[in-house]
Amino acid sequence: MELTLQEKIQLLRKRTGMNQGQFGAKAFNLTEETGRTKIKNIELGKQKPSADDLAQMAKLLNLPVSALMPKADDLTIGPMSSNGGMVVEQAVIERFRQLGPYLEMLNRAVAIKDEELIAHIAEKLSGIFLFSTRLKAVND
After folding, report:
1. What is the distance between the alpha carbons of residues 61 and 15, in angstroms, rounded to a whole number?
2. Could you tell me the end-to-end alpha-carbon distance of the chain, in angstroms, rounded to an integer?
3. Which uninterrupted H or E stretch holds 11?
4. Could you tell me which residues come within 8 angstroms of residue 81 by beta carbon, excluding any fewer than 6 positions away?
5. Can you tell me the distance from the alpha carbon of 54 to that of 51, in angstroms, rounded to the nearest whole number?
6. Of 125, 86, 128, 92, nearest in space to 107 by CA
7. What is the pLDDT of residues 89-119, one digit of tens each?
8. pTM of the model
């Protein structure tokens, strides 16, 4: 799975706790409404951020601009990747239907090396397994 620039910006923005309007207003010195529109378009891929846009967003995120640039080698994660990965059998995903979105988010969090987000997702995943185990015990 490859993390796009738009996805990376969205994940990092969400980690700050800012909505699109707040982030855009602070990054680009705009009103919240105009900032929201700009960030929304960037996150949806409707607007390609300029080098200056990337620099301003990186500054607000306290990151080097290079952190917003995806590296293909670092972002491929999955069963066949050369840098590891984990195979999750289809039967497991079918049994634990809530896993799908979390596994995708976990892959993306690992790709950007967001330890806080990884820990949060791991906690959610353990809750899914714990709930399922308790439910199975009640049904048995």
Report:
1. 9
2. 38
3. helix 5-16
4. none
5. 5
6. 86
7. 667 667 766 677 777 777 777 777 778 888 8
8. 0.52
